[in-house]
Amino acid sequence: QQPVQSPQAVILREGEDAVINCSSSKALYSVHWYRQKHGEAPVFLMILLKGGEQKGHDKISASFNEKKQQSSLYLTASQLSYSGTYFCGTAQAYNQGGKLIFGQGTELSVKP
Amino acid sequence: DTAVSQTPKYLVTQMGNDKSIKCEQNLGHDTMYWYKQDSKKFLKIMFSYNNKELIINETVPNRFSPKSPDKAHLNLHINSLELGDSAVYFCASSQVSSGSSDTQYFGPGTRLTVL
Predict the structure, then answer these.
(1) What confidence tens digit (pLDDT) does each residue in B54-100 have?
(2) What torsion do the CA atoms of B75, B31, A104, A67 make, to the nearest 10 degrees?
(3) Are B44 and A102 a contacting pair at CB < 8 A?
(4) B114 to chain A, minimum CA–CA distance in Å?
(5) How many other CB atoms sit within 10 Å of the CB of residue A100?
(6) Distance of CA B30 to the CA centre of its chain
(7) A85-96 burial by CB neighbour count: b if 16+ within 10 A, else e?
(8) Is residue A101 a contact partner of residue A2, using CB atoms and an 8 Å limit?
(9) For the residues of B33-84, what is the DSSP string, one character each?
(10) Does residue A86 contact residue A62 with C-beta atoms inside 8 Å?
(11) Is 70 exceeded by the pLDDT of residue A81?
(12) What is the mean pLDDT of chain B?
């Protein structure tokens, strides 16, 4: 079942913060976050596996709620390079051969 | 020293033709995937192979046939191309067979346009 991302699109000024949510109606095994710039491949950001987990590097972090049905991606003090489409990819179980079901994407534009 | 590479990058062809896309990874990974991304950017898994064995086959028309000659290569052959096949096709790879807790690395994509 496809996860739902919100918002669909967001426009920021440099230095502003944003939150992107990824929700599922069922508990998930893992959530994978990717960023894709126009005309390029999706680039891996991070994986969350445990309920209540929080991860981050630089100014991008993510959380996975206790019920493992929602993940949020936090972008703080946004930079122009953060522009792109963000996808969450979800796995329902450990042993599904790597099958990820992706959300519809959130388009993020950072303006000077 | 590209990790996951695909050829060609662009493919323009007529309806009814047969075409192939090639993928190679030099990461030493065991599992490779094909994804299709449509014009609305919806990214959907098509197939995965683990060490040359088909693991995932997601209700894809049988005009699409993946082939893995070895674990570093996964090709996609498409017969009788249709307009609806126009999309960007991404190859990806991950280290272990489950992939559910493992990073998938994507290739640069092949933009297929069927006229």
Answers:
(1) 988 887 899 999 999 999 999 999 999 999 999 999 999 998 766 67
(2) 170
(3) yes
(4) 18
(5) 26
(6) 15
(7) bbbbbbbbeeeb
(8) yes
(9) EEEEE-TT--EEEEEEEETTEEEEE-S--TTEEEEEEETTEEEEEE-S--GG
(10) no
(11) yes
(12) 93
The structure tokens 């936090």 sit at A74
Residue corresponding to tokens 């990214």:
B43
Closest CB to B103: pick one of A36, A44, A96. Answer: A44
Tell if the CB–CB gap between A32 and B104 is shorter than 8 Å.
yes
Give residue B40's identity as a one-letter amino acid code. K
- DSSP per residue, B2-13: -SEEEE-SEEEE
Q: Which residues of B touch A42 (CB under 8 A)?
A: 43, 90, 106
Amino acid at B87: A
User: Picking from A17-21, A98-102, B31-35, which range would have the lowest pLDDT averaged per residue?
Assistant: A98-102
Dihedral sign (CA B4, A2, A75, A57):
negative
At residue B47, the pLDDT reads 92
Q: What is the spatial distance between Cα A29 and Cα A25, in angstroms, rounded to a whole number?
A: 13
Residue closest to A3 by CA, chosen among A37, A26, A19:
A26
